[in-house]
Specification:
Blueprint lengths: L9 E3 L2 E3 L3 E3 L16 H10 L5 E8 L16 H16 L3 E7 L17 E2 L8 E3 L5 E3 L4 E2 L2 H20 L5 E4 L5 H6 L14 H4 L1 H14 L4 E5 L14 H13 L5 E5 L5 H4 L10 H5 L7 E4 L4 H10 L4 E4 L1 H5 L3 H7 L25 H7 L1
Parallel strand pairs: 3-14, 4-5, 5-10, 6-9, 10-11, 11-12, 12-13, 13-14
Antiparallel strand pairs: 1-2, 7-8
């Protein structure tokens, strides 16, 4: 069955894509311990997945030390981290690919072992998320109740995002994506379940939206709107987020406010991706985030969450999205665009190697060319 619709050019702001198969941001926990610097192997990992005119979105990179919530995840707040990312962008550009950095702060989804001086994680309000946190040694512990950010600290946090965007520019990226999904700090501000503030950053929905808009505007100051995207998960439940009676009503105000900024793209996670959180079978009848928000988003839209080649083709042909981001399929198939274009069989990802470790399950998946030479 043809997937031709995925292999037509599209422009996302200033980013000229030769095809519409995007690599989704994928946490791999392989940064160098201590400094959270992308390892040399990361350059090879991203190089393998680059294609001429194709777009890669990096794994999330914390914008400050307080933004970390998982072991050995890369940052974008030190000179050493910038240098490590420069090796990645050089490798991707050498293959003609495009790459944007995802800016990240986990907020309350952290543990004191990650925090400066062992302090509490920060959040909009002192609302403890359900579940367990990673610890810096790779173990697990119950989430602590986070410390609410003071107004001056919120302003400083926006500055951290601005600095992260500037560091991404220095590292040679083609743009940045604000991580506003999966229950991390921006989503914690957006949602009433985690934001109980009564000041200018809480109360009604317009005030709860304020932090996200200030972060996006900070990134735009550095890059211009045409090289800034944002990822949202209106139907998501990760990290004790979401669970709204009417997600569309909750997210329409922020989507409309973002639309006024003429960003490069809006990146939405589909509801069926919740199966990765619950462990339940994929809900094929789950509502479509792309279809729900497409009428309210005049710009380019990327959708992600459990797509196959044919289903990705269908969503593009319907006009619900302009491009489709693939996650696990890109982990196991460095040459995923080529495989989808040819209708070739896909490698099966090994979940046991998704996080931490060495090259195994990271840079050793075979590509079609290798398989054909050995046949």
């Amino acid at each position: 069955m043809s997937t031709a619709a995925l292999f037509t050019p599209v422009r996302l702001g200033d980013l000229e894509l030769a095809h519409r198969v995007v690599m989704a941001p994928l946490t791999r926990m392989r940064a160098q311990p201590g400094g959270n610097v992308p390892p040399a192997l990361a350059a090879e990992y991203y190089r393998q997945r680059a294609s001429a005119g194709g777009l890669l979105i990096t794994e999330a990179a914390q914008v400050s030390r307080t933004g970390q919530g998982y072991p050995t995840t890369p940052g974008i707040h030190s000179a050493e981290q910038v240098a490590g990312w420069r090796a990645v962008t050089d490798a991707v550009h050498a293959r003609g690919g495009l790459i944007v950095l995802q800016l990240w702060h986990v907020g309350r989804v952290s543990h004191p072992s990650f925090q400066p001086d062992g302090g509490l994680p920060v959040a909009p309000s002192p609302v403890r998320p359900a579940g367990q946190s990673f610890t810096a040694d790779g173990g697990f512990a119950p989430f602590p109740t986070p410390r609410p950010l003071e107004l001056t600290e919120i302003k400083a946090m926006v500055d951290d995002y601005r600095a992260g965007a500037a560091n991404a520019l220095a590292a040679g990226f083609d743009g940045v994506e604000v991580h506003g999904a999966n229950g991390y700090l921006p989503q914690q501000f957006l949602e009433e379940r985690s934001n109980r503030r009564t000041d200018e950053y809480g109360g009604d929905q317009a005030r709860r939206n304020r932090f996200v808009l200030e972060v996006v505007d900070a990134a735009v100051e550095v890059w211009g709107a045409a090289r800034v995207g944002i990822r949202l998960s209106p139907y998501g439940i990760a990290n004790d987020s979401g669970q709204h009676g009417d997600p569309v009503a909750v997210y329409l105000p922020i989507v409309r406010a973002l639309a006024e900024r003429d960003l490069a793209y809006l990146h939405l996670i589909e509801a069926r991706a919740n199966s990765a959180v619950t462990g339940a079978p994929v809900d094929t009848d789950a509502p479509s985030a792309a279809a729900a928000f497409r009428p309210h988003w005049p710009g380019r839209l990327i959708t992600a969450g459990g797509f196959t080649g044919p289903s990705a083709r269908d969503v593009v042909e319907r006009g619900d999205a302009d491009a489709v981001a693939f996650g696990r399929a890109f982990i196991a198939n460095p040459d995923l665009p080529a495989r989808l274009a040819r209708g070739a069989e896909l490698n099966v990802p090994d979940r046991s190697t998704f996080y931490r470790g060495d090259h195994t399950g990271y840079t050793d998946y075979p590509v079609l060319a290798d398989l054909e030479r050995s046949a």
